Amino acid sequence: MTNAPPLPMLITGIAGVPGYNAFHHFRARYGDQVIGLRQASMWPLAGDGIVACDVEDAKGIERLWEQYKFKSLLNCAGTCRLKSCELDPTMAHRVNVAGTGNIMTGAAAHGALTIHLSVDLVFSGEQQGEYTEADPLDPVTVYGAKMVEAETVVRTLRPESCILRISLPMGISFNGHAGAIDWIASRFKQEKPATLYYDEIRTPTYTDCMNRLYERLFFNPIVGTFHAGGSRTLSLFEIAQIVSVVGGYDPSLLQGCPRIEAGPMPPRAGNVTMNSSKIIETLGYQPFDPWPFPAHLVPTHRAWHLEQKEFSGSQEQVHALLYQNPNAPGTTPPSRSELWGSKRFRP
Question: Which of 53, 173, 277, 309 could form a disulfide with 182 if both were Cys (CB 3.0 to 4.6 A apart)?
Fold first, then answer.
């Protein structure tokens, strides 16, 4: 196959938002040469090219590498459940650190071109954002601390890797309630309130933009650690305002507060916005359109969502404006409800 990245390709963590969207992006281009890995418990996520194996299963991961002999790896695996990681640091280490070690051991043994996803939560947010790759790491959560350890594992076992620190990946989730968009929307769909923070600030990115970046990096590899945050900064509350308006939900369901009022469990980061100028300069172009792309959907104040009565929100608008980048739309994968309907159990 000409004009293709090194194949076959392994994409791990396909039950999560970045992995799920990347799997469909690359599978549409390279077919059976792309394999997606999901945890064994996520049985509804099934289909061609999907393999079940927990990343902490060292023997199982070794067999997977031996079977397919992957030549490229996009590692999206891990658990980002903040509270679960706080309550069970051993589990967080097993999945996010030891699991990364198992994946990287295979990548090193087979010489696979490697992209590893880390996260903005390796920072505390106490310095008011605009973090660069040179800033010291000071996570406030167990999850963030384990992602720091995972980065060290990658640099040790596969030093030729590209480590991308991402923020919130904005795309559809398989289960309908993972990721920022779908978690917020799932609350509103059930007519339940959602409380988001005024002062946790992120740099969200369309998965469409991320997928094209991965593809570029597989064709033209770069080595090192790079920030890959979007070009627009938004608080979690502002993100929820956008979801409320674009989805056409009851605006009274959205509540906001400073993160200090949210209680101690789990701890919350502050302004963890990332400066991504290093990767922009390395590539020679800006890979990330702002999320959301339409500027008129950016809140201007805390009551903004209550005033957008002329906007006709719907699930179709969420697909067209929030899941997809309307400036350069990719393919939106199906959700679990689209695939399974009302079925909840194994047939």
Answer: 173
